[in-house]
User: Which sequence fits this backbone?
């Protein structure tokens, strides 16, 4: 039986008619109020390449958001595009549930080789295609493995918007209209390099927080039942680009091992060379029991995977599943991305670029004291915006200035620079550019950022 051929639209940058405001107005008509990025970054993207995106009005922007860290190699890397074309022309199915394909076999072998000890102690679990899906699976598995129900998480942590993931997320805003959160989630303070949660600061604050965690687990009258798992980020991303002190993270690992508590490391944003190591936990030389991976692992397409220590793989067949856990295109783009990151030592290059960029920002900070604190690892950098005209607290920290942070994000956008805010009150400007960003482009970023500071009315000191 013959059927009429469906007309397929040809898409290229010249076919997008209209201006940014027209597209944004239509989006507001079509979509729910829940959309967020278009409110802060009001553009309609026509094309993208590397660290650059171009809107429908043909204005170019230096993209330091990169899909919230998803695009490790930037937009439309030619090898990534070729891997998509190879799958399409190969005859492989695009949807496979968790059925086996040669491509999945290659991807699995390579990803495992990047885990501690080349993955000999780990197996993989392909979950639904988002980081939140993987977090849900990790929490469920920890409870199933240990027979316990409680979980310890940390203030400032971000793990997703689904039920369990939101329950272990620190941000209170999304929880306000949600009742019946997952029970027995105990939050503990996470070290902060600028605003110590104990009001002590420095090494003394880190030592106190380490002791506090260990004492809570050991104290038979703490009121907190022994947890199934501890979940954390080695560098908090949405929480304001806050790296965990190495000795604190090592102490967490030691205590959880001694008590048979599974340690879940959420590497969704910080993983895959972003911090100057392949995984952020590698800075502390520890081995998690469960590693949560998404964003960059799919090379720009939706994919989420758990790395599970084999001794804790307590699943029965089918006890956690997901329709879209077999995304072949994402495995192809992910495999290509992982190979480039590993074989070209992108992590090593990122470490050097990150230290150079932080040094340059520190020099800028001397002229603009509204940049209260610069922190991060590799190309995961945050700048906390403060009120230097206001009195400091007892640790010498200025109060946060979220209004100025909003204005600076807008002025950056006006200057052709895209970055995101995060942290408490949204006062941290966050940099998550392509890991392949060049020295020339980093210098251009600094120029555009200083232009934004001046445009916001800030007067340089000295």
Assistant:
């Amino acid at each position: 039986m013959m059927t009429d051929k469906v007309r397929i639209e040809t898409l290229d940058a010249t076919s997008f008619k209209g201006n940014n405001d027209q597209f944004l107005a239509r989006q507001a008509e079509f979509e729910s109020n829940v959309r967020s990025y278009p409110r802060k970054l009001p553009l309609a993207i026509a094309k993208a390449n590397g660290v650059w995106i171009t809107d429908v009005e043909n204005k170019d922007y230096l993209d330091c958001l990169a899909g919230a860290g998803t695009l490790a190699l930037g937009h439309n890397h030619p090898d990534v595009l070729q891997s998509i074309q190879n799958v399409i022309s190969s005859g492989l199915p695009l949807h496979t549930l968790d059925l086996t394909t040669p491509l999945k076999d290659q991807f699995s072998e390579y990803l495992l080789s990047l885990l501690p000890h080349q993955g000999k102690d780990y197996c993989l679990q392909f979950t639904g295609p988002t980081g939140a899906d993987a977090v849900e699976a990790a929490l469920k598995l920890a409870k199933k493995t240990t027979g316990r129900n409680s979980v310890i998480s940390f203030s400032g942590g971000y793990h997703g918007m689904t039920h369990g993931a939101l329950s272990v997320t620190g941000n209170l805003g999304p929880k306000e209209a949600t009742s019946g959160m997952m029970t027995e989630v105990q939050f503990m303070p996470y070290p902060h390099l600028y605003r110590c949660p104990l009001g002590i600061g420095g090494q003394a604050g880190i030592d106190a927080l380490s002791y506090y965690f260990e004492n809570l687990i050991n104290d038979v009258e703490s009121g907190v039942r022994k947890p199934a798992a501890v979940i954390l980020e080695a560098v908090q991303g949405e929480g304001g680009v806050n790296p965990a002190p190495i000795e604190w993270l090592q102490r967490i690992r030691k205590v959880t091992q001694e008590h048979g508590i599974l340690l879940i490391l959420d590497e969704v944003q910080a993983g895959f060379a972003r911090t100057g190591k392949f995984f952020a936990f590698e800075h502390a030389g520890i081995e998690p029991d469960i590693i949560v991976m998404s964003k960059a692992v799919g090379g720009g397409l939706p994919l989420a995977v758990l790395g599970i220590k084999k001794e804790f793989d307590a699943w029965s067949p089918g006890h956690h599943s997901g329709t879209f856990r077999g995304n072949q295109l994402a495995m192809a783009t992910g495999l290509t991305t992982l190979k480039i990151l590993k074989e070209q030592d992108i992590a090593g290059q990122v470490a050097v670029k990150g230290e150079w960029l932080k040094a340059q920002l520190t020099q800028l900070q001397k002229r603009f004291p509204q940049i209260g604190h610069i922190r991060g690892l590799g190309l995961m950098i945050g700048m906390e915006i403060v009120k230097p005209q206001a009195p400091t607290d007892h640790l010498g920290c200025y109060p946060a200035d979220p209004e100025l942070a909003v204005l600076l994000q807008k002025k950056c956008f006006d200057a052709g620079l895209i970055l995101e805010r995060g942290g408490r009150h949204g006062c941290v400007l966050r940099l998550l550019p392509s890991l392949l960003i060049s020295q020339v482009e980093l210098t251009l970023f600094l120029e555009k950022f200083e232009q934004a500071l001046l445009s916001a009315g800030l007067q340089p000191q000295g």
Remarks:
- The chain has a mean pLDDT of 95.
- DSSP finds twelve helices and 17 strands in the chain.
- The two ends are 80 Å apart (CA to CA).
- The CA atoms of residues 276 and 350 lie 5 Å apart.
